[in-house]
Task: structure prediction
Amino acid sequence: MTRVIGVDIGGTFTDLMLFDAEAGAVNVHKVPSTPAAPEEAMVAGIRELCGIAGVAPADVTGVFHGTTVATNAVLEFDGARVGLITTRGFRDVVHIGRHQRPQHYSIVQDIPWQAQPFAQRAHRKVVTERVVPPSGEVLVPLDEDEVRAAAAELAAEGVEAVAVCFLFSYLNPAHEQRAAAIVREAMPGAFVTTSADIVPQFREFERFTTALMNAFIGPKTGHYIERLDTALTGAGVAGDLHVMMSSGGVASVRAAAERPVTLLLSGPAAGILGGQWAGALSGRERLITFDVGGTSADIGIVTEHGVAEASARDTWVGGYPLLVPMLDVHAIGAGGGSIAFVDEGGAFRVGPRSAKARPGPACYGHGGTEPTISDAHLLLGRLDAERFLEGRMRLDRDAARAAIEPLAAQLGMDAEATAQGILTIANANMARAIRSRTIEKGHDPRDFTLVAFGGAGPLHAAEVADLLNVPEVLVPPYPGITSANGLLTSDLKYDQMRTVFMVEGAVDTARVDRELGELEATLRGWLHEDGVDDADIRVTRALDCRYVGQGYELRVPLDDGPFTADALARFHELHTREYGKAHGDPIEIVNARVTAVGRRPTVDALPVTSGTLDEARVDTQPVRFADGEHATPFYTRAALPIGEPFAGPAIVLHPDTTTVVPPGWSGCADAAGNLILTREGA
Result:
């Protein structure tokens, strides 16, 4: 029997979903996060969820996890002391970077990799070696004695993790591999990584930075995964642990520990997949996923071509460029715990600073005193203090008012008007972030459905959609648990790529086939180690191509079977779709890329309940909206009738969050279990 649990750890809550594949049963749960030791909330939540479902932890066959440990280590710059061993003459590549400025027009700014390098200059060591393009031929042998001396110096300096990054290792990784072996002998307790193992790709600055980030977060992430694995075993969970990667697939604990840099968008990636899955249940393909939690709002785009993946020029985390595959997720500091304040210039601001899980919003009763978005919702009546999370958590309206009143006094407004202002600013910030991923990328938001989830997404979705003229909002069956749900809709997935420069007219098709074949063999081997049979493995191949002279590439998918140069003609179509026109310049192949997916049992659908509007209606309370106060019905989600619309204003109470249906909108539960909100006149 297959019983799997998806667990997404957020800044405020840890979300859990248990899926019994044989019975088709689903149970969900939500517990406060424990940021100092995230595994504690996860294990406690699994125990409680198993109790709710009436199963033993030993009956759980798999645990799938979305984590923010790696992301937080980068954003908070809380990682290991890192050393770099690189080719002589290239010690400062990671400091010099490129002429890419986070703020284009500022003459006084901190460049992240210069202000806070992952490896201080004193910990960057150079050794003699050189391989040369295009063949990767060894021009100067590796000086192994210099590597041993460098390792000894790093050990004496207290370095905990080492990245070995040589200039042309993407063409021939032998020198990096040998140097890494020497470092492991000299520093047996250190985390050691090579750039070619992480991303065998040209662009040395980005490749070096990616490897250094892997080393920077490696020990902390590895220790966390080890503690979690041990804690799950101690709790009696027999199933294997897998972790969501930034690329939208789950990987084994082994792969996650070796390549933690692939986990940086672990939780947000799961959310996009959960939103895509929920949209597909209701026949929607073009989606804006809108995941608002306690500390951030994450935005993703799904089209008829699937989930958008970030390009090489867009893969940045914390201001650092990366070359690992990741879904195109844009995050801003706007969540239920975002703090409202008046800045030094006298402007009314909301976020990005957050109250987080502890002390949290004032209304949570954990000691918070600063005004947050959640406090504003409660003061305006949009949250039910007695029925929040089905009554499992009581909210303190007096504490929310006490937190907002000092801010109101600063602004010369009453508390309710200030609370409405907090939501207006937060909604504008969220709408601006969505415009950056739609209008600025050539997508018309009016052609999309906004999929709202996370603890706070459904509270804001309709009003944000109004600002964007998006006609429809879709709220998944368990919106507060959608990221955990996404973990249970994902297959095992691994990606590998290799740089192979070739120009149209002189393409070595045999070499392209050989490179693709070697990459596929590697990925199949990884999936076999995970226990996946060949019959359950699906492999896709692609080439990263550009016109000669261009700086960045587009991905050209390949058909099954032997590669032929005719496949390059697809690049013109892709270029037209992306940039509006094609050119007659020769096409250059830059990278060969293979993705292997190992299929596993996943959630096909969720149980759907239905009642009548009279049964669903539990109360009528005054709720303040932008146009004034309205007597507003409150409905329980599980009892809403399928296919029967109801008019806004209305509040829908879910087991894990709350949906606001403002005036001018209507709602309707559909047969797939989604709640569809529609704007009048759309």
